[in-house]
């Protein structure tokens, strides 16, 4: 196997772990971390293909994805803090109680 295959296998494993975590966990912070893991798996794929093809387009795209992910993390954690202050729990099953 060449290097691209190794990177894609690692990326697929990371994405699978993230997907399983999103589907099975009930803690919102753990689900959020699993979503970030899936996002980083996609970033690894972009960088691997960018290096394999010899251009920087994928790496530039990853830079923008990481910028958006940082903003997403800040907003997501602020929402978790507000949810915890309101319900004193971060369980996903309690999130449906915040309906108007």
Summary of the model, kept short:
The chain has helices at 3-24, 28-53, 57-87. With 100 residues, the protein is mainly alpha-helical. The chain has one domain: Helix Hairpins (Orthogonal Bundle), CATH 1.10.287.3510.
What do these coordinates show?
The chain has about 100 residues and is mostly helical. The protein has one domain: Helix Hairpins. Helix content is about 80%, strand content about 0%. The protein contains three helices and no strands. The chain is elongated, with a radius of gyration of 17 Å. One of its GO terms (biological process) is ATP synthesis coupled electron transport. Its EC number is 7.1.1.-. Belongs to the complex I subunit 4L family. This is NADH-quinone oxidoreductase subunit K. Keywords: Cell inner membrane, Cell membrane, Membrane, NAD, Quinone, Translocase, Transmembrane, Transmembrane helix, Transport, Ubiquinone.
The 3D shape can be described as elongated
- Spatial gap, N to C terminus: 55 Å
Secondary-structure element order, N to C: HHH
The CATH topology is what? Helix Hairpins
CATH architectural name: Orthogonal Bundle
Please work out how many helical segments DSSP would assign: 3
Helix content: over 70%
For the secondary structure, the number of strands is: 0
